Fold this protein.
Amino acid sequence: MSYNELATYFVNAFMAFQHIYIDKVQVQEHTSICECSGFVVSLSGKVTITVEGTTYILEPGMILHVPKEAKLTKKSVERKPVQVAFVYYRILNEDRVLSNEHFKLQIENKERLKANIVELKKYNEQPVTTATLKCQLLFLTLLDTIIDGVRQYDEKEHNYRIEEILHFIHEHYQEQLSVTHIADLFQIERRHLAYLFKRYTGMSPLNYLTEYRIRRSKELLRQADYSIAKVAELVGFEDNLYFSRIFKKRTGYSPSAYREKVMNVHH
């Protein structure tokens, strides 16, 4: 479940807080039925939750969305009971498909999530009428925490993927690389790769590859024993005339003029 899908769902769904309780999930399996759609959050350890035949492993920092009337089989993976929160909501526009699905979310802000749950539980236990409104407000705060936590996690994961791609480019820049090839290799949609790359590096994947090749070619041009054609080949350009044109466009010098300038500085 991506951040954009989740945010779109929460923005368009009319969700009303229903109930919260914190259960101690035992080492022995226990089965229950969801009274409404909701979120299952481990607060203190690792548990397995089986929903309609699919088993999820939950630990702090993970959230499981469960649909209404789903059969849940719970079991602690620890050698002791694990505290698990169940936050249920009613969906007021039943056409919202995600309310009927089960899926797991990973977030970054788990301490904030736990604090939201503790506060929501406290107000849910108060008998006064005003607590109902407070609970709805806290539930919306909880949704905001979930959305923001998924966004942070997605950004962290995306940054890690881009760093992997940068490392790949640094290792294979001499080869005939293309953006499509890189996108296919790392299983990222081409336009999404371009978006993530721009956000992380400030330039497109192709621009980054070209800049890296030019940077490496500068290092090689400082070595007089390499011809311009050889330098072009060593940094991944098949056509040395094209290389010379790109080099001049990026540096303001032709490769030979750059070499002469560098040599004069050193002498």
